Amino acid sequence: MRNPLSKVVKEIQPSGIRKFFDIVSEMKDAISLGVGEPDFDTPWHIREEGIYSLEKGKTFYTSNAGLKELKIEICNYMKRRYQMEYDFNKETIVTVGGSEAIDIALRAMLDPGDEVLIPQPSYVSYLPCTVLAGGVPVVIELKGENEFKLTREELLSAITEKTKVLILPFPNNPTGAIMDYDDLKSIVDVIIEKDLYVISDEIYSELTYGKQHVSIASFPGLKERTIVINGFSKSYAMTGWRLGYAVGPSIIIEQMIKIHQYAIMCAPTNSQYAGIEALRNGDSDVEMMRDAYDKRRRYLVHALRKMGMECFEPFGAFYVFPCIKKFGMTSDEFATKLLQEEKVAVVPGTAFGDCGEGYLRISYAYSIENLKIALERMEEFVTRLNKNN
Amino acid sequence: MREKVLAAIDKNSKLTPEDLAIMLGSTPEEITRLIKELEDETVICGYPTLINWDKVQCERVTALIEVKVTPQRGLGFDKIAERIYKFDEVQSVYLMSGGFDLTVIIEGKTMREVANFVSVKLAPMEAILSTATHFVLKKYKEHGLPLVQEKRDERMLITP
User: Fold this and answer.
1) CATH level 3 topology of A59-281
2) pLDDT for A237-279, tens place per residue?
3) A298 contacts in B (CB within 8 Å)?
4) Residue A65 gets which letter from DSSP?
5) pTM, 2 dp
6) Structural domain boundaries enclosing B28
7) Identical fold at A7-42+284-382 and A59-281?
8) Whose CA is closest to A256, among A360, A69, A109?
9) Complex ipTM, two decimals?
10) Is the domain of B36 the same as that of B77?
């Protein structure tokens, strides 16, 4: 029999998170700080709207690009929050989570051999999606001393004649880093000069602390070369609804709709109705959750520093990314040992790229009570490590 | 900062000044001072515990009583409200708009005890025109916190 598998697919590594998940799920009563989704339930008024849409019998396909009302609300939101104007008809597509938007944006833009710049540590799907779209991933290893922001120099040195797309994953999962106005400004002219396109994954845009999120697309000359990806998962605690969107130049969005049309049809209808309610009446929910995350963030950073862990202050998403290099273990060893000895699960930084070595991703999408217990256990662990060293 | 402190302890009064200082970006001294201030101004009036009495072997009944009263000249409803809330059995008293004047929430050990209170103490008061007593059958949510279901974390343990 012939080999049934594609060589390209076989070459792709399974996610590093998967491996750790298998270990954790066998452990009884482990406390996990390893989750990449909000702990809040979707606000009731949003869920209720989803239920109501079912009651009304909204159980059919919507148009490929998504419900008109939802696309209008998305454009209103982009204008209200980020002062950016998009045409709901030509420049907007509703997707199955931000993940699908990443995939189809890459597929719409890449020809074989085109290079895609992927700053790491970052979300696990950029690299495999690039490969699946026939592109060549070029990893930019972000550095702890820059608080994991992308610098102008790093960007310049990674660009070749084949570079076509830059992925900009900020606010960042797993580091919690953000790129503020000045950070973005320093790379804008490089992008224009080198004629790059940007896929800006802004799924955590509502979760920044102290500073309002700035989109790269809001800089002059960048809107026409940027696909902005966002969604409902993080801001409205709607991960399971699988609802995201992309806005950008119509020439790209049109092709994304084509792929989406053949591969997906449309995003779940009930989720789309719930999404309309979220964008219309969900601002105060977002604020409440942001406020709660912010308290936990301060609490976690303080506790980690107190136990002698080096960590920079993250201003976005819901992760802290402490450095564990001084303990003389790899991220994987540290995380495994912490799990075995204290039953606390965190994710090794290497799950998000090789340059995550020496770091851990700790999520604060947990109640303060939960964090307290986990941190007490971690402190005991660290104290023991210090004694033995 | 005062509002922030109040919002933080509204749902959890057990947070220590140290915890609050970390979470709100302040110092324990400032938080302690603010809380003292808020207590002195009776902005913070107490720190009760939210108990689901249904879960322990301890009989308790709660009744909500709609009361119609004649307001007194110069004193409005305040005087009569005070006469009512001074009773230990009375948990809450609210002045209402609409079809009746005061909502009185009473807690007692038995239904008889509550009925007794209404017929002997409350109803005969001069200013009171009428009462309508509703017994609470089950409490689902109080002070913004659900009392019934226990929330389990349904998320997978590790996700990207």
Assistant:
1) Aspartate Aminotransferase; domain 2 (3.40.640)
2) 999 999 999 999 999 999 999 999 999 999 999 999 999 999 9
3) 22-25
4) T
5) 0.90
6) 2-40
7) no
8) A109
9) 0.82
10) no
